[in-house]
Amino acid sequence: MATDRDSVLEAAVGVLSRRPTAHLDEIARAAGISRATLHRLFPGREALIREVGMLALQRLAAAFDTAAVEEGDAHDALRRLTEAVVPDAMLCAYLTGESQLYDDEAVNELWEAQMARLHALFLRGQQQGVFRIELSAAWLSEAFFDLLAGIGWAVQDGRLAPRDATSSLAELFLGGALRTPRPH
Amino acid sequence: MATDRDSVLEAAVGVLSRRPTAHLDEIARAAGISRATLHRLFPGREALIREVGMLALQRLAAAFDTAAVEEGDAHDALRRLTEAVVPDAMLCAYLTGESQLYDDEAVNELWEAQMARLHALFLRGQQQGVFRIELSAAWLSEAFFDLLAGIGWAVQDGRLAPRDATSSLAELFLGGALRTPRPH
DNA sequence: CAATTCTGAGACACCCACGTCTCATGTGAC
DNA sequence: GTCACATGAGACGTGGGTGTCTCAGAATTG
Predict the structure, then answer these.
(1) What is the pLDDT of residues B22-39, one digit of tens each?
(2) Which nucleotide is nearest to B25 (CA to C1')?
(3) From CA A21, how far away is CA A18, in angstroms rounded?
């Protein structure tokens, strides 16, 4: 079952996001398996964190797809993206925080691809006149991810109610990004 | 000279922010000293990263002081804070990213104190009617730091011009935080 | 110039996480 | 019931970073 691998990866994120230097024993225990089985599933620590990154990126890409960010009004597209990606906010937070992931080529390639999609979305929005042009599309892309990661942390630490996550992100970010202030 | 210690700490941030697991050799080389001298200045790795955190927190507290966040209109206070804190954005980014710092009690205490000041600022602003009340003061505080950290990364990686840093942060954040949109 | 202090380079041992292996136990299929 | 397979527990060796030490050379001070 490939589901088993994914559940282990999810547990690994829960531990690694808090302490990136956590021992494999701890990760195995968090996943409910032994260190031996963990080694049978993933050849080593390096492979484990790489697959965690790949899982996060796949989820991210899936969110972009379901949101259809390339279609329609840029404002609506961003709202759809927000809703689609907030459930995986923690994954994205780990993605941006773990600098070790940037060593892997496949991870980097997928990451750049998704960032390019987001950048294109903001660029399109600026051309459509819905996003402010005083702020570069590159900065808007980065800021969106920063806030998304912040949402992930806040929810996980219990500082923000999960039901408020989507609106908190959308309201704050769109308030600063939209050209015409908050036309909901 | 205490300046020497600080210069070493600054160099340490430059390395540790990118790779938190960097070897002491690498940190020493980045600081232009030998590993022996590094050990003479700081008893060990743990002490080093703790002092890096303390340096960052002192800079942060100093920025809060110079901005006089407790005085005057909340909107103006936040703009002053933005200007004062952006030069140390990278320090703050390391501060929020390095979860290992949360183990130290002194670091935690100072951190909570500064966050409380920021929280109070947003609360005051909401009572004054300048900040939106749909977004909790806690979330505004966290989001401000998230964006500040993002500014630090973007500038260090060359994705954002240093001269645009302050305005990029202020424009985007205030746009989403202010009740009356962008009355500059 | 002489003396003191500080620094860099290297060697050394220690420790701990990792990778690998073996064996006993448990589970499911036939 | 028997076989095959997967898992857990533990032991073992190893590698690499760290902490400590020594010694030679440079810098500063008198």
Answers:
(1) 999 999 999 999 999 999
(2) D17
(3) 9
